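Lecture notes, part 5. Sequence design as translation. It can be helpful to think of inverse folding as translation between two languages: the language of shapes and the language of residues. The source text, in structure tokens, appears below.
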């Protein structure tokens, strides 16, 4: 079903407030979730609200965190997230990274001890909106079978990049290092539909199209995705002195415990490397050159990363945001949560 951006935001904020989040933090979380839903990234949208609510009520997300920022060098810093909602901590850490990059040309800011932060594209667009280049990586709990392995070791460990042209449009690249994120499995379950058998494997390590039989996700492009997942885990886990690899805390499991996740923002100021206006013009030209290319058979155009999602967001503004009926029914219900995720094993269904 479709709901307006304003209505979806209101419903999410209302539910998160009931779970104990402040009005300010609930609104910031909702903004990131609605960003995802509006672009068709439903795996990182409102479908996550019930999980956040349950974890917050049980104490696994700190709803009244004490944030601090530690400047560790001319271009570096650590944002201490105090196990707050990841969206709130990551957004504020990016603000710090933007400030440093404007001053010093480049910024590398680690975000320590946070909960799930959602769609990374939101945070890198914060930097791009300021005329900068935004890059972000974030670790996740082990769900992906390494290349040549038989059991999960790394998470879906996403990577995002964004830059803005002088036409006001963004190139935004946001990918899981798995073929698909775990949220896509949740989305398939919520919509009662099968998945492509190239996404995941069952208990025997065989490809499966049944989202309820998934026991491990596959790395994107085999050894390449595996290598990228390792890189992300090192940059957002080991580098920040946090749990890594198979030791990263589970998304579900014991919801009374904090997750202690890490994220890393890298921001580059083009003005320290080239003429900033020429840079933005050439970003626009890149978009135009790609769009003007002859498409291959079966395609109607060559799109740049983020173009389709931006168009979907524009359509959502006009016609409403599509969300699963099950998600809407929860959002309008009186329940804060339904006790679905504490000690829940996603691989058990």
């Amino acid at each position: 079903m479709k709901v307006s951006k304003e209505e979806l935001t209101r419903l999410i904020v209302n539910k998160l407030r009931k779970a104990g989040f402040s009005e300010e933090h609930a609104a910031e979380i909702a903004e990131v979730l609605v960003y995802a839903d509006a672009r068709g990234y439903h795996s990182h949208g409102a479908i996550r609200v019930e999980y956040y609510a349950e974890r917050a009520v049980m104490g696994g997300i700190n709803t009244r965190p004490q944030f601090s920022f530690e400047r560790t060098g001319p271009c570096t810093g650590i944002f201490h997230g105090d196990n707050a909602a990841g969206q709130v901590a990551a957004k504020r850490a990016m603000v710090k990274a933007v400030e440093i990059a404007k001053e010093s040309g480049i910024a590398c800011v680690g975000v320590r001890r946070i909960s799930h932060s959602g769609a990374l594209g939101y945070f890198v667009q914060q930097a791009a909106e300021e005329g900068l280049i935004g890059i972000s990586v974030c670790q996740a709990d082990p769900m992906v079978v390494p290349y040549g392995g038989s059991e999960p070791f790394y998470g879906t460990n996403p990577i995002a990049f964004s830059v803005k042209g002088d036409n006001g449009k963004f190139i935004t690249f946001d990918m899981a290092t798995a073929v698909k994120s775990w949220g896509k499995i949740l989305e398939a379950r919520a919509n009662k539909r099968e998945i492509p058998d190239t996404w995941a494997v069952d208990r025997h390590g065989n490809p499966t199209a049944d989202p309820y039989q998934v026991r491990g996700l596959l790395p994107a492009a085999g050894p390449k995705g595996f290598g990228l997942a390792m890189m992300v885990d090192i940059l957002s886990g080991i580098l920040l002195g946090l749990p890594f690899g198979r030791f990263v805390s589970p998304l579900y499991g014991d919801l009374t415990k904090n997750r202690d996740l890490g994220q890393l923002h890298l921001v580059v100021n083009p003005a320290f490397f080239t003429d900033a206006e020429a840079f933005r013009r050439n970003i626009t030209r890149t978009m135009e050159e790609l769009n003007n290319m002859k498409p291959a058979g079966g395609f109607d155009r060559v799109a740049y990363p983020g173009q389709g999602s931006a168009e979907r967001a524009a359509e959502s503004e006009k016609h409403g945001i599509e969300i699963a009926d099950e998600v809407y029914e929860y959002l309008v219900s009186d329940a804060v949560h339904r006790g679905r995720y504490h000690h829940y094993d996603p691989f058990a269904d």
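The translated text above is only one of many valid answers, since several sequences can fold into similar shapes. The chain has one domain: 2-275+309-332.
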